[in-house]
Write a structure and sequence with these properties.
Blueprint: H1 3-31, H2 36-48, E1 52-53, E2 67-70, H3 76-83, E3 99-102, E4 105-109, E5 115-119, H4 131-142, E6 152-161, E7 164-173, E8 176-188, E9 191-198, E10 201-205, H5 214-221, E11 229-238, E12 249-258, E13 263-267
Parallel strand pairs: 1-11, 8-11
Antiparallel strand pairs: 2-10, 2-12, 3-4, 4-5, 5-9, 6-7, 7-8, 8-9, 11-12, 12-13
Helix pairs in contact: 2-5
Length: 275
Amino acid sequence: MDWSRAKSILILVFVIVNIFLVANIGVFNLRSSISGETISNAKTVLKERGITLKCELPRFGSDTGMMQFDNAADRKREIIGKLLGNIDKPVESIKFGEELVKGSKNLVFESNGDFIYKDQSPSGSVNLTSKNEIEKLVRDSLQGTGLPLGKYIVDDFWLVSDKEAIIIFREKYKSFIVYDNYIGAWVSKEGITHLECRFKEVRGLTQKNKIIPAHVILLRNMEKGSGTVILGIDIGFRNKSDRSTKDLYSSPAWRVTTDDNVITYFNAYTGEVIK
């Protein structure tokens, strides 16, 4: 027997098994903090209230810290170069809120990490029914800007009409979605017509605090007879809607999506709606 070859195979098997166990431990921590009986009882109460669940009720209830951010680094030069090309203006002199125009395109920086780009006459050909094609188009359009695109996942995609589609990317940090770090793109058959980016550098999590599990949030807020149909529930981090540049912390939040296209965020520490 070739013991050297056998040894290499065994080492490879052990590595694969360890990777599998680590991945499943992560899933277990997210799903198994709340007992199955508790979840079952919560489902029964919600059903009696006329609340329809068309998704799994999360079992995550572990203590979680707040997310801490740094203001994004200045990437104006890279973003301008990718979206507008060369411009007749020193990058250092560009102010936040100033509109940069080149042909059919315009770009406005609201902060180092927040900008809005528009193109009134894109020139290309896009299959609006292909999410993969549109995802690639947006990623290619922002490649080289310094944005951490590899950490972004497609969070939503839909056809507005036969002439426009919208795709939303959000950053994923470990097992959580950073709701405030997103890229939204409006795409026509000719290309990207509107691109919006909101981004701050994720530093990490602060000291852990007790969170309110998803089933408790629903039982507190979903009243009897509302007829609500819940399509999705997940947890991430959400700031107030004003996204003050001085506010560099986000609380853990439950995101609840209903069939009337309403998304509600609940502070996972207090249970209050984040407005």
